[in-house]
Amino acid sequence: MNYIILAAGMGTRLKPFTNNFPKCLVNIGNQETIVERCVRLIRKHDKTAEITIVVGFKKESIMEKFTDINFICNPFYEFTNSIVSLWFARNLLNKETVVINGDIVFSEELAKILVKKPTKPHIFMDSSIKKDGDYNVQIDEGKVVVMSKELDEYSGEYAGITKLDKNTAVKLKKELEDFIDKGYFKQWYEDVLVHMILDIDFELFYEDIANYSWTELDSISQLLFTKKIHRMEQEHE
C-alpha cells in the first residue's frame, strides 16, 4: 500500500520555533522527530509499505534522515498548499493509498488501524472534538457531508489522514489535475474531496478515532501532548 506524507510546508503557525527546519522535524522525544516516528510506526505494522514524503521547505534536512524513502519535491511550497504537494505525487494514486499530513502524530494503536487496506474511501475523524476544532467534519447517515474550517456546528475534527481504495485514488488524481489546470493552487487537497462530494455524488466515509490518542502539531500545548504520547509508549515498550 502507498503512504504519502505531505511535509512540504513552512510550519508558519509554529514560528519562530520552526524558522530553521520543517515542522515534521520537531523532536518529540528520544531524539525522534514527528516524521521519523510516523515512518517507524508504518513500517512496524506494514512490512511492505511504500512510503513517499513530499518535501519542500528545507527539504535536505528531511531527506538526510532517511536512506530508503522515496521523495517528491514541491518547489512551489512557499506559495501553494497541500493540493499542489499531492498533485506532484499524483502518479502514486494508482492503488490503495493513505495520505497523511506531515504534522500529525498518532498513537501506535491508531497506527494498527491506519495500515489496514481500505475497501472504501474514508477519513479519520475525532467525534470528541465539538468546539475549537481546526478543519472540521459534518456527517450524516454514516457519510461525510462536508469538511471545512468555516463550520459553526460539526460532528468532529478531521485528523489529517485520508485512506483511499484504488478506484477512489484514481478518481482523486483526475480531480486534482482538473483543479490545478484551473489554477487552484492554495487549497488543501481535502477541498477536492469536498468538491467530489458536493458535485459528483462521491461517497466519503469516516473512521471515528475518538478513543485513540493523536494530535496535529500547531501549538506549544499540542507539542507537549505529542511528547506525552511518545513518552508513554516508550515507557510501555
Write a structural description.
The protein has 237 residues and is of the alpha/beta class. The chain has one domain: Spore Coat Polysaccharide Biosynthesis Protein SpsA, Chain A (Alpha-Beta Complex), CATH 3.90.550.10. Helices cover 31% and strands 24% of the residues. The chain has 7 helices and 11 strands. The protein has helices at residues 34-45, 59-63, 82-88, 108-114, 166-181, 190-199, 220-235; strands at 2-7, 50-55, 70-73, 97-101, 104-106, 122-126, 136-140, 143-148, 156-164, 205-208, 214-216. The strands form 2 sheets. Strands 1, 2, 3, 4, 6, 7, 8, 9 and 10 form a 9-stranded mixed beta sheet that branches. Helix 2 (59-63) links the parallel strand 2 and strand 3 (70-73). Helix 3 packs across helix 5. It is globular, with a radius of gyration of 17 Å. 42% of the residues are buried.
Strand content: 15-25%
Characterize the overall form. globular
Number of helices: 7
N- and C-termini, Cα separation: 27 Å
Tally of strands: 11
CATH superfamily: Spore Coat Polysaccharide Biosynthesis Protein SpsA, Chain A
